[in-house]
Amino acid sequence: MLLARDGLLVFLGAGLGGVCRWLIGAGTLALFRQTRFPAATFVSNLAACALIGLLAGLALRSGGALGVPARLFLVTGFCGGLSTMSAFGLETVALLRRGDFFVAGTNVVLTLAVCCGAVWVLLRKFESLP
């Protein structure tokens, strides 16, 4: 029974995260029109990394009070559905195969630096709060 509940929590969180990913993609496309840079994937990765940093920071601040069901739904499910590292890999390789090395490199550097930075900043912010 516990395994079924946990799986359902991940499933529902991932579905919600996937819908948010789709909305971010549609909104980014409407905002930027056509661009060589995969902005929707970047924004989704940034949002997922910022959220996971926030959740980890809150869990640390509360002494781990973020329970297993909430972690399964929010971290594993929602952030997993929202983050698009597989799309990041595919889009980066496509850029490389087209010979667009500068845009591919920019995508890799920005995604890694900014997304890891978001996790770091938000995690540290909530660690240091009283």
TrEMBL record:
- Biological processes annotated in GO: cellular detoxification of fluoride
Q: Keyword Lipid biosynthesis: yes or no?
A: no
Stated regulation of activity: Na(+) is not transported, but it plays an essential structural role and its presence is essential for fluoride channel function.
Task: Please state where this protein is localized.
Answer: Cell membrane
Instruction: Indicate yes or no for the key word Secreted.
Output: no
What InterPro entries does the record point to?
Answer: FluC
Q: Which Pfam families match?
A: CRCB
Protein family per UniProt? Belongs to the fluoride channel Fluc/FEX (TC 1.A.43) family.
Q: What does this protein do?
A: Fluoride-specific ion channel. Important for reducing fluoride concentration in the cell, thus reducing its toxicity.
Protein's UniProt name: Fluoride-specific ion channel FluC
Species of the source: Candidatus Spyradosoma merdigallinarum
What is the name of the gene encoding this protein? fluC
